[in-house]
Amino acid sequence: MLNELIDKRKVVLQQSEEHKEKRNELNALASTYARERNQLNAQTRECVDEAQKNKELRDEANNSVHTLKAERNVLNDKANVLFEDIDAFKKEHGGISNNRGIKELHKQIERLEMEQQTKVFSPEKERELIEKIKQLRAGIKDQEDEIEQNKEIHAKLQEARDLRKEASDLHAKVTESAELAQKHHDLMVECYRKADKSREAADESHKKFVEAQEAADEEHNKFIACQKEIRDYDKVIGGLRKKTRKTKVTKEQKAVRKEAEQVFQQFRAGEKLTTDDILLLQRSKLL
């Protein structure tokens, strides 16, 4: 029975080592997934922060667009008032009445420039639009050249031109700010896309981390159970060994007692005892 228990203990000990080794492997794997998850989460935060920065820059550029547009519109309105006076002067003094007025031509240019800024055209359509704006500007110049010969409204025309120039400069800034706003918007969208991608990867790594950690915990519980079973075997085996040793000592003591009694009978019969015989009698407490 003792040998059978020892063999069973060896089997449980082997299982214990296997569970311990598997637990350590799974813990190492869980740590790897945790590092990956943490790195991806950090990457996600960086992308979100970068997206937020681009969002703020986009909003700043859009605010600039609104401010510049308002300033440009004020200048155009002032210029339009002057050009209305000039057109009225043309009609009154026999100007080219069949042609569209300068104010109307400017408005058409503004509309075409807005379309150029906000719509997507094919290269051919883009060239046609640019050519149309060029023709309208040429028409304005022809009319202005004709009107400029009259000194009465020369100063008014010059003021209107200056206002248009300022408005045109502001329009260029509007376009620049609008392009900048679009650039930062695109960067913001790209950053959020990257953040979503890294967040998904982080979630997957976290899922694998949890699975590995749970499996490691299960192996650890099995290892603990094996250790408890080994301790139980040790108690039983230790008890049996102690009992076996005690039984062996008792048998030896009985044999010595029996031998000592035989020597004692020889002593009582007057036979001569050896030193070993005397020691045997003393050990058996018969002498």
TrEMBL record:
Residues 2-78, 126-170 form a coiled coil. The lineage of its organism: Archaea, Methanobacteriati, Methanobacteriota, Stenosarchaea group, Methanomicrobia. It comes from the Archaea. Keywords: Coiled coil. InterPro entries: DUF7121. This is Putative phosphoserine phosphatase.
